[in-house]
Amino acid sequence: MTLTNSIEGEDITTEIMEEDDEHLFFFAFAEGVFSDPTGDGNIDNRADAVNYKDVDENGFPVGLSTNWTTQASMGGGEFRVVLKHQPGIKSATSTTDDGGTDVDLTFTLNTVTNVNDLRDALRQQLTLAPNPTQHQLNWTLDGQPGGDQLEVRILSITGQVMQLHTSQSPIIDVSRLPAGTYIFQLQTDQAIVSKRFIKAN
User: Fold this and answer.
1) Regarding predicted confidence, which is higher, 8 or 167?
2) Is the pLDDT of residue 199 over 80?
3) Cα separation of 127 and 130, whole Å?
4) How far apart (Å, rounded) are the C-alpha atoms in residues 154 and 186?
5) What distances in angstroms separate CA 130 from CA 69, 163, 176, 197, 200, one per listed residue?
6) Are 148 and 167 in contact (CB under 8 A)?
7) What burial class does residue 87 get, using C-beta atoms within 10 Å of its C-beta: 0-12 exposed, 13-18 middle, 19+ buried?
8) SS3 for 33-54, per residue?
9) CB atoms < 10 A from the CB of 100, how many?
10) Entry pTM
C-alpha cells in the first residue's frame, strides 16, 4: 500500500516505514471473500489470520505489504483498513484499542473482476436526458445504492474540466456552456463511467 497526503504533498508511506515500530495496520473483511487468509480479519481479534508480508525492527507486522487471495466465486461485502499509531506500546498482542487511529477506511468489494465489464454495465445504467439539451441535463444511474459517494464532471471534448459537482442532484445546469459536444463523467465508488452529450444553442 501507498499513502499520500495530496493536500500537503507528503509521502505518508515513507513516514510509516521510518517509524514502522510505531505503526500497525489492521484489516476486516466479509466472511468467505478470501480463501487466503480465511475468516473476517483481525480488527475484532488480533490473533485472527492476516497475511502480513513486512515486519518492523522488532519482528512485529506492519501491513504496508500484504497478500490476499479471493475465492473462485466470491460474494460482495466490505473491506476495512485501520492504521493504528502505537508509539511505545506496539507489541505482538496490541490491538485496535491501543494507540491513536491514523486511518480508518472502508471499501466496497465488487463481484465483477473485469473493470471493463463493470464500466460497460454502469454505462448501460446511466441515462442522460434531454440529449441534445439547452439548459439542464438530467441524469440517472439505475441501481445506484443510496449514500454512495458520487462525483460528476462535465468535460470538454479535449478533456478539460468545465464543471465539477459532488452532490447527488440528478439535475446539472449546463446553460452557460458554449454549444458543442461534451462528456458527462460520473465517478462512483466502483468505477468511472462516461457518456457524451450535446449542448445546443
Assistant:
1) 8
2) yes
3) 9
4) 9
5) 45, 18, 16, 9, 11
6) no
7) exposed
8) CEEECCCCECCCCCCCCCCECC
9) 9
10) 0.57
C-alpha distances (whole Å) from 16 to each of 5, 34, 92, 135, 197 are 13, 26, 18, 50, 45
Q: For residue 115, which of 26, 190, 36 has the smallest C-alpha distance?
A: 190
| Mean pLDDT value of segment 84-99 | 96
Q: What is the rounded CA–CA span in Å between residue 112 and residue 199?
A: 34
C-alpha span between 171 and 160 (Å, rounded): 21
Mean pLDDT of 56-85: 89
Distances in Å between the alpha carbon of 139 and those of 105, 150, 157, 163, 194?
A: 29, 12, 19, 15, 12
Q: Which helix (H) or strand (E) holds 12?
A: helix 12-18
C-alpha cell of 192? Answer: 468511472
- List Cβ neighbours of 93 (8 Å cut-off, separation of 6 or more): 46
Residue spans of beta strands (DSSP E) within the chain: 4-5, 10-11, 23-29, 34-36, 69-70, 77-85, 100-109, 126-129, 136-141, 151-156, 161-165, 171-173, 180-187, 192-199
Residue 62, pLDDT > 50, answer yes
Q: Mean of the pLDDT values across residues 177-196?
A: 89
Contact partners, residue 180, CB within 8 Å, separation at least 6: 156, 157, 198, 199
Q: How many CA atoms lie within 13 A of 95 on its CB side?
A: 9
